[in-house]
User: Fold this.
Amino acid sequence: MDINRKTVSVLFMLFSTLFCVCLITANVLETKQISFGPVNITGGLLVFPVSYIINDCVCEVWGYAKARLLIWLGFAMNFMFVMFGALADAIPGAPYWDNDAGFHAVFGLAPRIAAASFVAFLVGSFINAYVMSRMKVAHGGRHFSLRAVLSTVFGETADSLIFFPLALSGVVPLAEMPSLIISQVVLKTLYEIMVLPVTVKVVGMTKAHEHTDVYDEGINYSVWRIFNI
Assistant:
């Protein structure tokens, strides 16, 4: 069945909405450090890997071009959220408002965390989508599970190597930084592996519903061709 590659479907829009919500939620949760036994992680780990799973699904079903649109859309929505949060934090509170410290603890760090996350997100997400796309063509559409996991390893590694030094230097002790980065990559990859059966099912159902399974043969991988879908 032929499709118009210059349009997006309702299902693609639902994936896009969930993708943006995950990114915005992760930006807020990143401000909290949490511990699971001896492992220290950020709260963003609870939701951020979902964005990579959605990225995998979109790239697998609709191809790199629409994944590129999704990534830039997520970037724009996240940027808008952070800017409004910073603006609200900068405006003096009402006389009866007594939670300035708590609000500032979240949104006062948001610009710095957002700047780091914007760069890390773009690099990691595009690496993830590129690996997915190239491996799909190379393997003739086989081994989805393998490319989903490997693309996450490459993408999350790049993301963590950029994000944590930029966002949390001076907040997290330098000695803790390598273990934090490694634990994030390992845990996010394990997250992907644990939900892989669900991801495979969702991809299969989406392909059947959309009647499409795009192979990125001969496309331009430039990250700037945003509306070339």
Notes: Strands lie at 33-36, 39-42. The chain has a mean pLDDT of 88. The CA atoms of residues 173 and 180 lie 10 Å apart. The chain has eight helices and two strands.
